[in-house]
Hints:
The chain is an all-beta fold. The protein has strands at 2-6, 9-12, 17-24, 32-38, 45-50, 57-59, 67-72, 77-82, 91-98, 113-114, 118-123. Strands 2, 4, 5, 6, 9, 10 and 11 form a seven-stranded mixed beta sheet that branches. A hairpin with a 6-residue loop joins strand 4 (32-38) and strand 5. The protein starts with a strand and ends with a strand.
Amino acid sequence: VQLQASGGGLVQAGGSLRLSCAASGRTLSTLAVGWFRQAPGKERELVSAINRGGTITHYAESVEGRFTISIDSATNTAYLQMNSLKPEDSAVYYCAADELESRIPLLTPAQGSWGQGTQVTVSS
């Protein structure tokens, strides 16, 4: 599967952004999908994930209640709706997909499929 991430940008604190991850070559709902982020000088972290079939979602504690992950089967696109953004949410965001749901939390760039990063910058 090929993934194309988009939707990043510059937003003020308290604002919203919606990231998109368009998939081709495979039906995205047959894969587990994760959104990761990496800020300068920090390790990549899993922000949110959704299982195959889209029935179970996971959120990092830092984004719980503010971010929502979803998959639109009609467009074969995964989304990350980000509300109430904070400056500490600033990072490069990546989407990734893998057949093994258990592998998502520790997925490396050598595993699964990854989209290119999209920069999110939240100003205070």
